[in-house]
Amino acid sequence: MLGMVKNSLLSTVEAWPFRLLSKGEKDQVSYEERACEGGKFAAVELVGKPFDEASKEGAVKLLKYVGGSNDKGLGMGMTAPVSITAFPSEDGSFQQKVKVSLRIPSQFQANPPCPTDESIKIEEREGMTIYSTQFGGYAKEADYVSYAAKLKAALGSDAAYRKDFYLCNGYDPPMKPYGRRNEVWFVKE
């Protein structure tokens, strides 16, 4: 499962490459520390909409891009996860601003097609080390907030990570009814 995420509905999906650094568990919360590769990402920022609505809209735009809505008309295939950068408010809920992103498939990393949707930007990102916890189901804002709180508690005060944002990740297409995988990632400082 670490190399490629197999999905019976859409054949194979290329996973974001990473190296597992460590695993931990505290208070029944399992988590991992991973070194994730950098690379080129397609990203779209949405402001002024609730998290669930904005993340869905952003994901649809990116799916159209990798599906062929680009200057070369190329269907590139899917990568996972779809990653949503969330910006928590003081009360833990999310601000009405998200960045939805998708790693460009490996074979297109060197020269990705240009999106026909001008709201989609191609970004070069550095690799990063993250703390991650996983959960199932159809994830909504409340689920990500809940699992972020669990991950924060499990890591304790010794772990140094960015507090101004975190990543909400979905690995499965909406039509996959069970065995779903979602993760919350904190970016290590």
UniProtKB/TrEMBL annotation:
Pfam families, sorted: SOUL
Entry keyword ATP-binding: no
InterPro entries attached to this UniProt entry: Reg_factor_effector_dom_sf, SOUL_heme-bd
Family the entry assigns: Belongs to the HEBP family.
Cited PANTHER family: HEME-BINDING PROTEIN 1, HEME-BINDING PROTEIN-RELATED
Subunit (UniProt): Monomer.
Name of the protein described by the UniProt record: Heme-binding protein 1
